[in-house]
Design brief:
mainly alpha; Muramoyl-pentapeptide Carboxypeptidase, domain 1; 2 strands; 6% strand; 137 residues; two-stranded parallel ribbon
């Protein structure tokens, strides 16, 4: 049975990225929002509810609805993907550069998520300015 695919959601989704408004509505419903509160906008109330849910369930409290948060919320394993633009990175080249076929299979979805998090935390901009170092073993 194939896993359900859901987007990684964070503050601003459904507003800046209206293409995921339905998934934000689903998130809000799963978090217990009333029908009058469900608007498909990941704003301050949704962020606070996500963080409270993460805290109450022993998850990383970051306000980002990724694989662990979706799976815990829905009570089933899910597959997540990034719906946000990836900037200037060539995902195909990155994935093709991975020598192990089994890892390449999952890299198509996970590499964009990793790059999103690096951008969100400023790691990528630091690398471009030569202020951060990354070591790979």
């Amino acid at each position: 049975m194939a896993l359900r695919r859901l987007p990684v959601l964070r503050f601003g989704d459904g507003i800046d990225f209206p293409g995921v408004k339905d998934q934000v509505k689903e998130l809000q419903a799963e978090l217990g929002f009333s029908s009058t509160q469900i608007d498909g906008k990941f704003g301050v109330m949704t962020d606070a509810a996500v963080r409270r849910f993460q805290q109450n369930n022993g998850l990383l409290v970051d306000g980002i609805v990724g694989g662990q948060t979706w799976s815990t919320l829905l009570g089933e394993p899910v597959e997540v993907f990034s719906h946000r633009p990836q900037g200037t990175f060539d995902i195909d080249k990155i994935v093709a550069s991975i020598p192990q076929a089994v890892i390449r299979r999952y890299a198509r979805d996970s590499v964009p998520l990793i790059l999103d998090e690096c951008k969100a935390s400023g790691v990528i901009s630091q690398l471009r300015r030569g202020q951060a170092h990354v070591a790979c073993n």
